[in-house]
Amino acid sequence: MDAKLEEKLSITNTQLIWKARNNIQNIIVETPLISSPVLSDRMGAEVYLKLENLQDIGAFKVRGAANKIISLTEEKKQCGVATFSTGNHGLAVAYVARKLGIKATVCISSRVPLAKVDAIRRAGADIVIIGESQDDAEKYCYELQEKHGMTVIKPFDDLEVIAGQGTIGLELLEALPDLDAVIVPLSGGGLIAGVAIALKSVNPMIQVIGVSMEGASVMNESIQAGKPVVLQEQDTLADSLLGGIGLNNEYTFDIVKNYVDDIILVSEDEIAQGMTFMVEHHRMVVEGAAAVGIAAIIQGKIQGRYKKVGTIITGNNIDFSVILEILQNYKREEW
User: Residue 83's beta-bridge partner residues?
Assistant: First the structure.
C-alpha cells in the first residue's frame, strides 16, 4: 500500500465511528441481533442476523444520513440538504431532516420503486424524479447545490456517512466479540467500508464478505478492473444496490479494495429465494438487497470454516405486490 493511499485510509478510522455513535444515538435504533438455526445448520456455523430492517425507516441508511446531517454547521443546515438515491438513502435523509427541522430535496431515477417514492414523500422531502439511473439523479442534485446552496448528502462516498454506517460494526462486536466473519450487502460501499474498518481495527482476521447481484454490480466490476467503472443499470430485485460508485470515488473504492476479503454475486432467483426464506423462517418481509447475504448462504457460496457469522439485513422497503409475487413462485422445498 503506497503512502498516499495509507494516509487516505487512516482518515477513516474507529474514532470517527465512535463519534458517530454518540452523534446518532437519539435518532437511530440499536437493532437486535438474532440467531438463525436453519442458516446455521446450512452453513455449519452459528449464523446471526443484524436486523437493520427494524430501523424506524426500515433501513440502515438512517445511520449515515443522521451522522452527516448532524455534523453540518448551522449555516449549512439553514440552506437545506439534497441527495440522490435509489430509495433508502433518500428516505433516510428525508427522515433525519424532518426531525432536525431542515429542508430536504431527494433526486431519484425512474427505476426507484413506488413504495420507496411514497415513503420519501411521506417523510416530508421534496422529490425530483429524473432520468433512468442514479447517475442522472446525481447530476441534477449537484445542479441544485450550485443554484440554491444546498448541501449534498452523498449516499456512500463520504467520511461521516461511512462512519455512521460503521456503527453497525461496533454493535456486532459488542454482541459477538468472537465474530469471525460478516456478510454485507454491497453497492456503493459505504456500509461495508464502515463495518470493515470497525471490525478489522479490533481483529484484522475477521473476514468481511460483500454480496451483490449478478447484473450491474459496479463495485465488483470496479475492483476487478482496478479502478472505478460505469455500468448500465439493470432491473433487479435488489434495486437498493443499483447505482455507480463515481469515477472520482474518494473513499469507498479504496477501502473495499483493501479491507474486503471477498465479493460474491447472486442471481435474481437466488435473491428471491433469500426473501422467501426470511418470510418462512423469520416471519419478516425484507427487500431484495437485504436478502443477498441470505441467498449466498442458502446457495453454499460462502467459502471458509467459520464459527460465528453475522449477516446484515439491511432493509424492508419493498412494494407489497413484489413480495406477493415472489411468495407465490418460490416454495420452501426449493432450497
Answer: 106
Whether pTM exceeds 0.85: yes
Listed in sequence order, the residues at least 6 apart from 83 whose beta carbon sits closer than 8 Å to its beta carbon are 65, 89, 90, 93, 104, 105, 106, 107, 141, 152, 153, 154, 155
What are the beta bridge partners of residue 118?
A: none
What's the average model confidence in pLDDT over 303-328?
Answer: 93
For cell 461496533, name the residue: 170
Q: What is the C-alpha separation between 310 and 39, in angstroms, rounded?
A: 11
| Residues contacting residue 137 through CB under 8 Å, at least 6 positions apart | 84, 85, 107, 108, 109, 128, 130, 131
Crossing angle of helices 218-225 and 252-259, in 10° steps, is 70
Q: What is the mean pLDDT of the chain?
A: 93
**231 φ/ψ angles, rounded to the nearest 5 degrees:** -125, 150
CA of 190: how far to CAs of 65, 164, 244, in Å?
11, 9, 12
Q: Is the pLDDT of residue 332 over 80?
A: no
The C-alpha angle with vertex 232 and arms to 243 and 246, in degrees rounded to 5, equals 45
Q: Burial letters for 92-112: b for 16+ Cβ neighbours within 10 Å, e otherwise? A: bbbbbbebeebbbbbbbbebb
Output the nine-digit C-alpha cell for 228: 472505478
Give all strands (DSSP E) within the chain, no chain letters: 33-35, 46-51, 81-85, 104-108, 126-129, 151-152, 181-185, 207-213, 262-266, 308-313
Q: Helix axis angle, 159-175 relative to 14-24, nearest 10°? A: 90
